[in-house]
Specification:
Layout (H helix, E strand, L loop, with lengths): L5 E10 L2 E11 L15 H8 L7 E6 L2 E2 L5 H6 L17 H12 L5 H15 L18 H4 L2
Antiparallel strand pairs: 1-2, 1-3, 3-4
């Protein structure tokens, strides 16, 4: 079997005396889909935050294609293509979908020139098929980018 795309070995995250993630060994192969389920407070979100660099694990390893990535920073991990898609869509109220995409691009590519960031945003917009939905604005507390919008 080939080297895992994403792997943890003994991943542990402590918050003081509370152990939120306890020695997790996990491997994800290329093109494999995995689901992590469990009750509230089981450590699922903390586990994903360790994978994506939002938290630095207390112990253990996070590897991307065999290279250690724990502690390199969320922006660097995002550039590798590792990120979280939350269950509830998070958008900035009153901004268009295009503006929300641009904010993400600005965060991941902070040193890119303005035109280059716009091109990167357009690339991802086309890649996921948002099309005409890009100019719609999110009203306070809601997100209307549904599956039907993606076909527009």
């Amino acid at each position: 079997m080939s080297e895992p795309l994403l792997q943890t070995r003994g991943l542990t995250m402590r918050f003081g005396g509370v152990v939120a993630v306890d020695r997790v060994d996990f491997a994800l192969q290329e093109a494999e889909l995995r689901c992590v389920i469990g009750p509230n407070g089981a450590g699922k979100s903390t586990f994903f935050k360790c994978l994506t660099g939002q938290l630095k694990p207390s112990a253990g390893d996070v590897l991307f294609r065999g290279t250690p990535i724990a502690g390199i920073g969320g922006h660097a991990i995002a550039r590798l293509g590792v990120g979280i898609k939350t269950q509830v869509p998070n958008v900035f109220d009153g901004l268009s979908a295009r503006d929300n995409v641009m904010l993400g691009v600005d965060k991941v590519y902070p040193h890119a020139e303005s035109g280059e960031r716009r091109d990167i945003a357009e690339y991802y917009v086309e890649r996921v098929g948002l099309g005409a939905a890009m100019e719609r604005r999110a009203a306070k507390g809601e997100c209307h980018l549904q599956r039907a919008d993606l076909a527009e």
